[in-house]
Amino acid sequence: MLIPRPDAPTRIRAIRLLPLVGLAFAVGCATAGTLPSEQAQLVVTKDALAQTGSFYLWPDRLDQRMVVGALDALEQSFDSVIFDSEEGSAEGVLTVNGESARVPLDPSFDPERYRDVLARAIRFTEQHLPDPIDPENDLEHIALRGALGALDPYSTIFSGRGSEDFRIRFEGKLSGVGARIGRRDGDLIAVRVFPGSPAEKGGLRDGDAILSIDGDPTQPLSVEDAVSRIRGRAGTPISLGVVRGSDPKQRLDVSIIRGEVMIPSVESRTLQGAGRIGYAQIYQVSRETAQEFRERVSELGPLDGLVLDMRGNTGGSMVAAAQLVDQFLDSHTIVRTVTRDGLPPDARSRISADPAIEFDMPLSILVDPQTASAAEIISGALEPLGNVTIIGQTTYGKGLVQQVMPMKDENLLKLTVAEYLLSDDRAINQKGVEPRIRLFPVAASRLGSLANVPAGAVPYVRGAGEDDAFPVEVGAILLREPGERGLARVRAQAYENIAKHLEPLGVRWSARRGADDSALPLPLGVAVQAPTLVSGEAGTVRITVSNPNDFALPDVWLALDAGALYLDNKIAGLGELAARDSVTTEIELLPPDGISVEHHPIDLLVASGDRPLLKQRSVLDVSVQPPEFEIEVERLSEAEARLTLTNRGRHAARGLTIAVSGATRSFEVLEPGAHEQITLPLAAKPKTIVIAQLGPWAQRRIEVPIPETRVSYTPPEVVIDEQSENLGLRARTDVGLRDGWISVDLQKRAWSDFEGARAGEIEVPLGSGEHDVVAKIETAEGVSVVDIRRVTRESAAAASR
Asked: Which CATH class for the 173-262 domain?
């Protein structure tokens, strides 16, 4: 049966199930009762709420959002849980496996009242979940993390291994693989693999793009979530699917045994070239970082300047950051913290510099969007010095202080208690540190982005898999040649390299931006003619660009820019576009076989040399040919299982990964009728095997149980219909469907118990714009299919044009 959200708001009212077996149409709305009086036993919530009520930085946020956050977290953790509420409403509705109850949402914060509501809601959830609860899924901790996360992104509760990891992080060591992870051009990258680490021993290299973690795609994960997944107990295995170098087809599977790793917080060297220019990179700000920095820089001897690299540094200890800054300052306020009103005076603190200066030299400080927290204190506190130049991109903007408070049973409460301000009361939170020299890195595979460089930024090309060394060169050049002369040299060097990359594509890169970089008197006209493309088949897009102005435009070129491999470097040089004239070009596209969305959003960019002229959003329609698999799993022993994957469809399947915890196998293509047979280790005692497939704006994850003997599985046929007014999920299988759900923009919209029917459908309304959609179907055999995709829905007005 379908369980729509009881008393749901208008935006999710039209939800239906169509059991295709009998073609019966049903619309239902359950009646919500009240929460039971019986309460779950909550171990840490009472103390955590008391501390939150006393010390949280923004007491005006302590309201119903905490209850909503707690129950939203339960919804995201369990398939059959849905929580619905409207902002400002006095109650919400919690539905678990078809049973519904109203949840009071008091606008004011009362710790006892909140604990009572949460305890009853958790007990209701425990009573109605269809399956036994895994001991690792502690409902109290899930709910409490959700409640704290609704306040801000940094407040949370640590338990078990999470508490242990947090304690040792500031000691500069932890249990994991020994690599620094970050995002680059949308990819998860091994930015730095530390010498002698488990990652290096396992074969991970600097610059490797990490596509999967134990078979799970990394694309939807934040850097923090990915790092959390990669960390783990010493001695346990982990498998990373990576791409090395510029060819996305060259996939590798890296198996690593986690271990205790010491993370160096500072590395230094002397740069080659004129003068004595030093280089120091700070990876994290831990308890010993200031002393490490002093030692590493002193070892370099007398210097004419220092490139201080803070890229990818997500922070750490505020005190350690101030100690490092103190080595450059005399008698200035470095940082002060401001807590909530009403606390005693000693709750406000200020850290000022000692009069003694240890290092007096010009600095080039490199920053990027991952530079955060304590790393921003270092960058921002040094910025006012006359001989300091900040280079890169705007930093993350985390200007908050968290206090860690011990709770019962070795739990740790991390709570935001203060905001920090730099000298002259400069705030950084949600603002970041702005660079004086703004760099605009462009991947060699996405050169089209060069047609949309922000004004004043210096663009440069970074090769796939290459260390991002150009900012270091920029820092050194500006230390040797300060001011406009050095900046002109930087830009000339970057432009020369860009021209070499664009010339083979028929584009002449020239400096066309001047002091007057205003829009054209009359905007360019662009017409796109594109048939419905078919995945796996070549198609042609025809583009006409018109210049209505009374002057010619030199070195005109256009690009299709989007986050899909088949659209990489789809660029056309148009040459000079005469006054009141137009030019037409054709670009051939080949959407890949396999999983994909039906509407591919792209940016059409037009430029004259380095001067952006036009950016227009467009959508390519693609007819998708979904893959069809047969999966056979045989347990060979307690230590091994063998999986045979057969493509029984009429089209090739691409971008496949097969994994269990600790082992991954990736392959680029599985042709129709072909099969792959692999043996997987069961050392981590996994219960399932994952077959993951990645395509344009879409991912599919098939999870099959590991049997005691040998079993053949045919995954259910799953189709997400993007064409109708609503978003439809249709599924069919001969073995019967167990349940399914749809989530839109992190909000579960509907859950259905299919009760063993061979086919079923769920629909939810979907407005215009871009939406993150997750849909899951599970069969009676325990085979599940999860689709993750970005769905683009044009407005009615746009569609009619």
From this structure: mainly beta
